[in-house]
Amino acid sequence: MKTSIIGFPRVGELRELKFATEKYFRKEISAEELEAKGKELRTKHWQLLVDQGIDFIPSNDFSFFDTTLDTAVLLNIIPEKYQALHLSPLETYFALARGYQGKAGDVTALAMKKWFNTNYHYMVPEIDDDTKLKLVGEKIFTTFNEAKEVGVVTKPTIIGPFTLLKLSTYHGSKQASDFYEDAITAYSQIFAQLAELGCEWLQLDEPALVLDLSLAEVKQFKALYQKLLAKKGNLKILMQTYFGDVRDVYQELIDLPVDGIGLDFVEGRKILSLLEDYGFPNDKLLFAGIINGKNIWKNDYQATLTLLEKLQPYGDIVLNTSCSLLHVPFTLGNESLLSTDVTNYFAFAVEKLTELNDLKQIVENKEDNQDLLNANITLFEQQRFSENEQVAQQIKALTEKDFIRLPELEKRAVIQEDKLKLPILPTTTIGSFPQTKEVKLNRAKFRKGEIAETEYTAFNQEKIAACVAFQEKIGLDVLVHGEFERNDMVEYFGESLEGYLFTEKAWVQSYGTRCVKPPIIWGDVSRSNPITVAYSKYAQSLTDKPVKGMLTGPVTILNWSFPREDISLRESTLQLALAIQEEVLDLEANGIEIIQIDEAALREKLPLRQTDWHSEYLDWAIPAFRLVHSKVQPTTQIHTHMCYSEFSDIIQDIDNMDADVISFEASRSNLDILDALKAIDFRTQVGPGVYDIHSPRVPSVEEIETTIYNILNKLPIEKVWVNPDCGLKTRGVPETEASLKNLVLAAKKVRGGV
After folding, report:
1. Distance CA 241, CA 482 (A)
2. Count of Cβ atoms closer than 10 Å to residue 275 Cβ
3. CA-CA distance, 678 to 712, in Å (whole number)?
4. 3 state DSSP class of 102
5. Measured by CB atoms within 10 angstroms of the end CB, which terminus of the chain is less buried, N or C?
6. Which of 524, 532, 562 is nearest to 549 (CA)?
7. How far apart are CA 16 and CA 509, in angstroms?
8. pLDDT tens column, 210-234
9. For residues 549-563, average pLDDT
C-alpha cells in the first residue's frame, strides 16, 4: 500500500514565503532573491515529505500567489492589457494578481473568487475571443527538475483543462468548449515534455467534476479527455477530484484511459455508493481521500479502517488526503501554549502525513501496530468537548418569532431615513483601516505583557481619534473606528467567547500573501462580557456623525473557524448567533445607531450541488443571521458585508437576511452582481464596492465616478451606498487616504449631477 497527498502548504512553516514576497513588493529584495527563497522552501518541503514516507509527492503545487493563476500564465491566458505593459514575466504575473500602477501603465487586478467551498481565493482567468491558449511557460518542468536534482521523484500536479476553462471568465462570443482543441494541444505538449524529463505520474486536478454538471458538460468532458488522453503516451495520469462526489460523471470517469482516479471519501457523500453500484476498474489505482485536508481534528483510525475494508474489493488503493493540505496549518510543532490534553486531538499538515503512515502500517501489519491503533481508539473514546447546558436550553427554546424583525424592511427604511438624515449616495467604508507596524507592535507588546492595558488602550484610542478625524475631514457620511484593536475579524471575537481555543502560529493561506489563523471551536459557545462596546462607544463620543458598530456574523465566524465534528454546523451557528445577538443589543443600548454584522463568508459552506443548498445550509444559515438582529429597535440600521464569492445565484436568500443595508465586493467582478439585484427587485439598500482594496493602486475620481454612474444605471439612487469593496486592513496609509478622498469627491460630483 502506498501513500499520497494532493498538495502541501506553500507559505512555509513560519510564513517565510509571505514575508519574502512582501519584501519583493516593497523592493527590498530582488526577483532573483525571491525565486531563491521559493526554491529553498520547495526543497525543504519535498525533503519533509520524503522523511515522512510519502510515496506520491507533488510538485508544481507551489505558487508565489495562486496555482490557478500559474496555470493561466503557463498557457498564455494573459489579457492584452497586461501584456501591453511590457514588464518582466514575474512583474506581469504580479500585475495580474495585484494590479499595476506605474510608468508602464495602469491596470486593475484579475477578479478573485473563493476556491469551491473553502476560504482560499483563486484568481479568475480572463479569456477573450483572441486569446491564444498555448504552452509558453516552464514552471511545471523546472520544479520537477529541481526535485530530481535533490533526489526526489515527484508527481507534478496541474489544474486540468475542464476545471480551468469552466472557472474562467469569457469576454466575447466564445465559451469554454471553443478552447478545448487548443487546450488539448497545450496539455499534450506538457505530457510530452514531462515524459521526456523522466516523469512517471502527472496529477490533473479536476475538482469541477464534483459540481452539478449538465448532460452537455458531461459530454464535453468525455470528448475533451478522450482526445487528450490519446496523447498521453507512457505517462501515467492521475485524475484527481476533491470537495465532493462525482455522481454526474462517475461512469464516464472510470471509462477513461487514466491510470489512477482520486476520490474524496470525506466530503463525497455518494462516493462509496457509486463504487458499489458501478464498480471500479481493476486496471486503475484508486487514490482514496481518507485524511481530511480541511479540518484539524485527528483521524478516527477505526472508522477509516472500516471504510478501507469496504474498498478492498476495488483493487489496489493509495491512501490519500481528501484535498490539498493547503487548507490546514503547517504543523503543531510550533504550538507551545496549548496543552497536550488539547493538541492530542489535532493534526495539522505535517501530522496528517504521520496519520497516512500510521494507517499504512496498521493495514499492512495490524498485529505489530495494535498499540498504535489502540491509542487512537482510546483518544476517541474520551470526552473531549465542553458543554454548556444554559446555551442548549436557549437553543431549544427558540421559536419562529425569534427569527423575525418587526416592523418590515420598507417601514424601517422610512424610520431610519428620518432618524439618520443621510444624504443620497451615503459614503462609508467597510470597517477596518490600515494595520500599520505601530498598531501591530502595540498589540504584540500587550499580548506579551510588556505594556499595561491602560497604555495599550490609550494607544488604540489615539489611533481611533485620528481615524475619526480623518474621516470627518474628507467628508465621509458614516464613520468607523478603524478596528486597531483587532487582529482578525474572527479570531478577535473568538478570543472573547467561551468555547474557543487559539493557536500561536497555525497560519493558513487565504490568498496571495494573506494568511489567517482560524480559531478552533472546542466546546459550546457563549458570551460572558461585551466585546466591542467600549471602543465603539468611545469613537461615537468623538463625532456627531454615526459611527458603525462593527461585528462579525455567526455564519462567517463558524466558516472561518475549525468547527467541531460532534454536533451539526447548524447548532454551532445558532450558539454563535445568540452570543452575537447579545453584543448587538449592548451596542444599541450604548447609543450605536448603525451596526454592521459582516457575513463575508456566507457562501463558503454552501453545498457545491444546488439541490442541497437549502436543506443542508441556507435553511439554517439565513435564519441564524436574522436571529442576531431580530430584537433591535426599528431606528437601528443593520448593515452586513459580503465579498469574493459568486452571490448572484443566492441573491433572493441574501435579501431574505432582512438587513437594512448590504455591501458587496463588486469591483473585481465588473459589477456583475447588479444584474442579479435588478432581476429580483432587491429590497435591501446596497453598497456595491466601487474600487478594489486588494490592489495597491489608487483609483481616480473619474474612475469611481464612472463606476457610480454604472451602478445607478441599474439600481435606484435612493438604495445605493458608496464604499470600497472590502476592509482596508491590508493596505498602506497613503494609498488608503488617497483612495477614500477620491471616493468622497466622486460621490459628491455624482450627487451634484443627478
Report:
1. 42
2. 20
3. 11
4. strand
5. C
6. 532
7. 12
8. 999 999 999 999 999 999 999 999 9
9. 96
Q: Which residue has the cell 460572558?
A: 528
- Give yes or no for a contact between 608 and 323, defined as CB atoms under 8 angstroms apart: no
Strand 549-552 relative to strand 594-598, pairing: parallel
Say if strands 236-240 and 105-107 run parallel, antiparallel, or are unpaired. Answer: unpaired
Question: Other CB atoms closer than 10 Å to residue 666's CB: what's the count?
Answer: 25
Distance CA(295)–CA(329), nearest Å, equals: 10
Q: Contact 651/622 with Cβ under 8 angstroms?
A: no
d(CA 475, CA 423): 12
SS3 content of the chain, % helix, strand, coil (to 5): 45, 15, 40
Task: State pTM to two decimals.
Answer: 0.89
- pLDDT score of 644: 63
DSSP code per residue over 433-481: ----HHHHHHHHHHHTTSS-HHHHHHHHHHHHHHHHHHHHHHT-SSB--
For residue 355, give the C-alpha cell: 496519520
Q: Is the dihedral of CA 387, 391, 393, 399 positive or negative?
A: negative
Nearest alpha carbon to residue 298 among 360, 247, 359, 252: 359
Give residue 291's Cα distance to chain centre. 20
Residue 657, C-alpha cell as written in the block: 437576511
> What does DSSP assign to residue 155?
E
Active site residue 694: yes
Cell numbers given for 559: 466558516
Q: What letter represents residue 407's amino acid?
A: P
- Hey, what domains does the chain have and what are their CATH numbers? 2-381 (3.20.20.210), 407-753 (3.20.20.210)
pLDDT at 94 over 70: yes
CB atoms within 10 A of CB 32: 9
pLDDT score recorded for residue 669: 66
Is the omega angle on the peptide bond into residue 407 within 30 degrees of 0, that is, cis?
A: yes
Task: Provide CB contacts within 8 A for 697, sequence distance 6+.
Answer: 99, 100, 101, 106, 108, 735
The DSSP code sequence of 193-207 is HHHHTT--EEEEE-G
Q: In the prediction, which pLDDT does 261 show?
A: 98
38-42, 127-131, 151-155, 364-368: the lowest-pLDDT one: 364-368
pLDDT exceeds cutoff 80 at 269? yes
| Gap between the Cα atoms of 727 and 240, Å rounded | 35
Q: Identify residue 139 by its one-letter amino acid code.
A: K
Q: List 687's β-bridge partners, or say none.
A: 663
Mean pLDDT confidence for 275-304: 97
DSSP helix/strand/coil, 275? helix
- Whether residue 648 has pLDDT greater than 90: no
Where does residue 352 rank: exposed (0-12), middle (13-18), buried (19+ CB within 10 A)?
buried
Which of these is catalytic: 121, 629, 639, 694?
694
Reduce the DSSP state of residue 660 to 3 states and report it: coil
Integer Cα distance of 682 and 715 in angstroms: 9
CA-to-CA dists, residue 371 to 319, 353, 355, angstroms: 21, 19, 14
Band of pLDDT at residue 79, cut at 50, 70 and 90: very high
Question: At residue 193, what are phi and psi to the nearest 5 degrees?
Answer: -70, -40
**159 within 8 A of 67, measured Cβ to Cβ:** yes
DSSP annotation of 376: H
